Amino acid sequence: MRNLKGAGAKRYRATIGGDWKVAAFIVDRMAKAPKCRAADDLLLTADSHPLYRKARADLATKTTRELINIATGDAALPVRALATWFSVGTHPRQTKHLSARRGEPAALFDGLCEAGLPHTTVEIAREGFRKIGEPLCPFFALLCPLARCEASTLQDDVMPPQTMIGEVPSYAYDMYVREGRTISLQTFLQGDSETTRWVRDHVRPGQRVNFLGTVVFRVEGGLVRQRLTWPIGDELRKLVDIECHGPSCNDATEIMKLMRTDIGLLNEERSHHVG
Question: What's this model's pTM, rounded to 2 decimal places?
């Protein structure tokens, strides 16, 4: 990985084999590396879990200094994450439920350092946020010290059945691509599987594609090889899987089970309409 930073320069990439070789190398290393989705799950818990509805409203009116004190204090982790998020700034494209707020990222990262969070971790998060502006970066700084204090193992997620559609695996056609959302999911919802009957019984028509797309992502798209499993990360994953699907579904245990059973039927729709 010594020259990975230099891989961003087109002239340098040409000297080591070109864009494809560099991209293939990076993807290969990332695929084999240990992975943790705790920052993603923390973001979704903070943004969507009903338990933190009041905190989402209350923290929006705090000063940056008050937010930093909460972010570095002993509040529940999702509340600390919300305070962190408001500190760096919120934008409609990143959140479903937080009001827009102009942030003060420099003050937040300085505050994390002053509170004693590992300096190297905070600076990695600061640089990441400078480049991509995503709250996942400071969430990484919150989570790393906690992960170091808990026992962890690496474990592959259990993958559902999948097929290839041309040269693309079926799970790539999820709600985040046009073919997956407007063709496969909408057509699948017109069928008569147990999953689609459940969705029609519990979710309003205008919300069904988004709801089912989120369930499908939790069932297949968010799965990884070499997942870091640790108590806080596992709890956050459970909260998002079961309790963050909106007012139509307070407990997603049943619909997640049904979707796992019916994923083969969805793959048939994908193959038929996309392939």
Answer: 0.91
Token pair recorded at residue 227: 């997942």
**Tokens of residue 45, six digits:** 């818990």
Which neighbouring-strand residues pair with 168?
165
Strand (E) or helix (H) holding 168: strand 168-169
The continuous run of DSSP H or E covering 83 comes out as: helix 77-88
As averages over each run of 10 residues, the pLDDT of the chain (275 residues) reads 55 88 93 96 98 97 98 98 98 92 97 97 98 97 96 95 92 92 92 97 96 97 95 98 95 98 95 81
Domain boundaries, the chain: 38-149, 164-273
- Rounded to 5°, the CA angle 117-223-42 comes to 30
Please answer whether residues 219 and 263 qualify as being in contact, where contact means their C-beta atoms are separated by less than 8 angstroms. yes
The two three-digit tokens of residue 115, written as one number: 């509170």
Cα 49 off chain centre by: 14
Burial class (CB in 10 A: 0-12, 13-18, 19+), 107: middle
